[in-house]
Design a protein that fits this description.
Strand content: 15-25%
CATH class: Alpha Beta
Mean pLDDT: 96
Number of domains: 1
Strand order of the largest sheet: 1-2-4-3-5-6-7-8
Helix content: 40-55%
Number of helices: 11
Distance between the termini: 36 Å
Number of strands: 8
CATH architecture: 3-Layer(aba) Sandwich
Shape: globular
Length: 269
């Protein structure tokens, strides 16, 4: 399985497709398998898609100490260095969107385009997970029952409309159990998120940016998308009605097409 060493961390990645490089940055507890083939497969027809596991999660090497979102952005920058890539289109969702924000602020020359999905910028007006959903997730994790924890995550991450079809849970469960996600690493990711605030620096970003957010997001509510768009006037906000946090899981074809069109338009420009 392909791995690269970036600083003190060993990162697992998977790379497939053809075209300009497209770097995919996952969110809290997310791994490379959390993108899902229905979303990734069409993107590989247009791009050289690179999906990796953030430090300490999935098939990347275990870690011990804490870290910041900025340090995770340096991981992403180091990864594309190790792969011999000068610049890439970047997609970051949730915590991955926070990492992408720090990446474009620190290394704007490395990004051909930027897509920020279901994410958060910190500062006045930002909203973290509603308390009732925090309690659902906490109860699942504290139960000591992995299936209960996965069911809690499913309830919070996906919209009621999507969950109304019970047969959809099986694919989510398979994804959530296919690679490891260390509880301690997830806790450290949460700590990093609490310290994230790029809200005062969005005016520095000139990279063509697409913002995607579902109106039924139960993790980082929809007003976060509107706030980021208001702080980045050139950026475009794509609102997905009645869609939850994991918009690419609920609407893989539409989500992939939005990203494809945005990236290719940026390349033409």
């Amino acid at each position: 399985m392909p791995k690269v060493r970036v600083g003190e961390n060993e990162l697992h990645y998977e790379r497939a497709g053809s075209g300009e490089p497209l770097l995919m940055i996952q969110g809290m507890s997310g791994t490379h398998v959390a993108w899902g083939e229905p979303f990734l497969a069409p993107l590989r027809e247009s791009f050289d898609v690179i999906a990796f596991d953030n430090r300490g999660i999935g098939l990347s090497a275990p870690i011990e100490g804490g870290f910041t979102i900025s340090e995770m952005a340096e991981d992403a920058s180091g990864l594309i260095d190790e792969l011999g890539i000068e610049s890439a289109h970047v997609v970051g969702i949730s915590m991955g969107g926070m990492i992408a924000q720090e990446l474009v602020l620190a290394h704007p020359e490395r990004l051909r385009s930027l897509t920020l999905g279901c994410t958060y910028c910190g500062g006045p007006g930002s909203q973290l997970m509603p308390q009732e959903n925090v309690e659902i997730i906490a109860a699942g994790m504290m139960s000591g029952d992995r299936d209960k924890a996965i069911r809690a995550s499913y309830e919070v991450n996906l919209s009621p409309v999507f969950r109304s079809e019970e047969s959809r849970y099986a694919a989510f469960h398979e994804m959530a159990t296919s690679v490891p996600a260390a509880k301690r690493t997830i806790e450290l990711q949460a700590q990093a998120i609490f310290g994230h605030d790029t809200s005062a620096r969005f005016g520095e970003i000139s990279t063509p940016t697409l913002i995607v957010h579902g109106t039924e997001d139960g993790v980082l509510p929809y007003p976060n998308g509107k706030l980021i768009a208001s702080l980045m006037p050139p950026a475009r906000l794509e609102t997905l009605e009645d869609v939850g946090h994991m918009f690419w899981w609920e609407q893989p074809e539409r989500s992939g097409e939005l990203i494809r069109e945005h990236a290719l338009a940026a390349s033409r420009a």
